[in-house]
Amino acid sequence: MKIRSKICGMTRAEDALIAAHLGVDAIGLIFFARSKRCVDIKQAQRILAGIPPFVSVVGLFVNPSVAEVEKVLSQIPLHILQFHGDEPPEFCQQFHRPYIKAVRVKATADIISAAETYADAQALLFDAAVAGEYGGTGQSFDWQLLPQRLSMPWILSGGLNPLNLKSAIAQTGAQAVDVSSGVELSPGIKDQEKMAMFLNNLKIM
């Protein structure tokens, strides 16, 4: 089975286009003002202008208001919403889009609880728990905390890069991966060689 990939935190149209040509399954746009990779509506529109068909566009939010999400949706054709804050399931469900719920993993119980609470999510995304942060830290969590079986699809995130990707997948059995800082020159500026290496490593697994 093909391992699915998402490169998150796109801020430049050229980076998103390169990622698409390299074969990424999805790109992520961050609509969270405190993020170093935050984009506004006009930036997002420029990034998406050249994206070819069948590349999913994911919009990432952290504890947004309903109005904030709806404003983005009214102007940006997002395929999937990704919530990285403390949003309850009823909040995530109301926008009539598939959604991904991020889980900051401290213990296996966090994963089990999220699978029960967000059972209607398209997937859970597992990231490192870093105090005061909502992702994009470049840190990984203890992969041994992952349960052997989970009742829903999930995505491995947190600290992935071209050098540790094979080991991460071998240890976790992940069928989908999400990377941001691991393929960057600086926050929001992607490195073509790192993106190519990351995605090529997936193809040969």
What's the helix and strand layout?
Elements lengths: L3 E4 L5 H10 L3 E5 L10 H9 L6 E6 L4 H10 L4 E4 L5 H5 L5 E7 L2 H10 L5 E6 L25 E3 L8 H8 L3 E4 L4 E3 L2 E2 L1 H12 L2
Parallel strand pairs: 1-2, 1-8, 2-3, 3-4, 4-5, 5-6, 6-7
Antiparallel strand pairs: 9-10
What does this protein structure show overall?
The protein is an alpha/beta fold and 205 residues long. The chain has a single domain, classed as TIM Barrel (Alpha-Beta Barrel), CATH 3.20.20.70. The protein has seven helices and ten strands. The strands form two sheets. The chain has an eight-stranded parallel beta sheet with strand order 7-6-5-4-3-2-1-8. Strands 9-10 form a two-stranded antiparallel ribbon. Helix 1 packs parallel to helix 2 (41-49) and helix 1 (13-22) runs parallel beside helix 7.
Q: Strand share of the residues?
A: 15-25%
Query: How much helical structure, as a percent, in the residues?
Result: 25-40%
Measure the end-to-end span.
Answer: 10 Å
* Biggest pleated sheet: 8 strands, parallel
The CATH superfamily title: Aldolase class I
CATH topology: TIM Barrel
Order of helices and strands: EHEHEHEHEHEEHEEEH
Could you tell me the mean pLDDT? 94
Shape: globular
In angstroms, what is the radius of gyration?
Answer: 16 Å
Core attributes:
alpha/beta; 205 residues; TIM Barrel
